[in-house]
Design brief:
With about 110 residues, this protein is mostly beta strands. The chain is about 10% helix and about 45% strand. It has one helix and nine strands. The strands form two sheets. Strands 1, 2, 3, 4, 5 and 6 form a six-stranded antiparallel beta sheet that branches. Strands 7-8-9 form a three-stranded antiparallel beta sheet. Strand 2 and strand 3 form a beta hairpin.
Length: about 110
């Protein structure tokens, strides 16, 4: 089962940073625990039923990495993290703030 596949989180283990993924289009085939990609060293938290992109290596279903969830059909995440002009920006339903602004508030 090598290549890139789309599946659904069956179980998520926060303590180990792993997930089990199932593929309904493959007779509900289920993977072993797979590590979850941590961009920039940040842990991704997943939930049962999340649609995820999985990169499978050529040596079996137990060898792969859950890349993470993705947006489709206007299903955009409610919160985000971005970098613009060298500033780290956190954004959620209440607005946005830069890391510099957070530090200034903590020091003030």
């Amino acid at each position: 089962m090598d290549g890139i596949r789309v599946g659904f989180v069956s179980t998520y283990d926060e303590s180990t940073g792993t997930a089990v993924v199932y593929y309904p289009d493959r007779c509900h085939e289920v993977t072993d625990n797979l590590p979850i990609f941590s961009p920039f060293g940040l842990r991704q938290a997943l939930q049962k039923g999340d649609t995820v992109l999985v990169l499978h290596l050529s040596n079996g279903q137990e060898a792969g990495i859950v890349i993470g969830t993705y947006s489709s059909d206007g299903d955009v995440p409610a919160a985000g993290l971005s970098v613009k002009d060298g500033n780290l920006i956190l954004k959620d339903s209440s607005g946005s703030i830069t890391l510099k602004e957070i530090i200034a508030k903590c020091q003030g």
